[in-house]
Amino acid sequence: MTQIQTTTTLNQRKQRRSSLGSIFIGLILGLLVCTALTSGVFFALSTMFGNQAQAKIQVVHAAQVERHVQANLKIVMNQPGMHKDWPAYTPTNLVLPAHSLVTITIRNYDLGDTPLPNNSPFTKVQGTIGGTASANGQTYTSLAADKVAHTFTILQLHISVPVPGDAVKGASYAAVTFTIRTGNAGTYMFQCFDPCGTSASGWMGPMMKMGYMMGTVTVQ
Questions:
Q1: Which domain does 42 fall in, by range?
Q2: How far is the C-alpha of 178 from the C-alpha of 162, rounded, in Å?
Q3: How many CB atoms lie within 10 A of CB 151?
Q4: Tally of domains within the chain
Q5: 88 with 148, same domain?
Q6: pLDDT tens track, the chain, 220 positions
Q7: Does 80 lie in the same domain as 54?
């Protein structure tokens, strides 16, 4: 009788251990399944929202692509309604986009040079991309003081380009090209700092009057 009871007890213990083992294995399998499902959902959401975020980044980058525009100016003489022998920029209100690259071409029809003082800072190209300009196809960083006819200078933006008075043979104008980068919106004054005006000093007349060698640049 005692042996039968002992055998029965052992069998019951084995059954309990087997049940506990099955439960434990079931829990492990359940955890693995939950982990797999969670990982799959996380991966799917990450992929979906990650693609959306990447698309947004690409849109932002596209919106930030810098514009590059062209602008043209002339320096003319003796136009109808103007003072005789007074040089003038035209147009005298230049409108440029903000935060953009702007390539400006100046055609100088007022040929001939008006020497600057040898120590003048306005013989140098300043504030342009690369610190250079191009005159009649030749790149330069400065001009000799006696080879300057006018300057295009925006003091507020630290931009200044000396404009030569010598054209290529047979041409009626000297062509100057340079590129600047505009910043925030605002209105600035451009003017000439070469003594191309009236009086003995050359600093009067068109040098002191808006609409001649003085004008505005509107960045917007």
A1: 1-65
A2: 11
A3: 24
A4: 2
A5: yes
A6: 444 444 444 455 555 555 545 554 554 545 444 444 444 444 444 444 455 545 444 444 444 567 999 999 999 999 889 999 999 999 999 999 999 999 999 999 999 999 999 899 999 999 999 999 999 889 999 999 999 999 999 999 999 999 999 999 999 999 999 999 999 999 999 999 999 999 999 999 999 999 999 999 999 9
A7: no
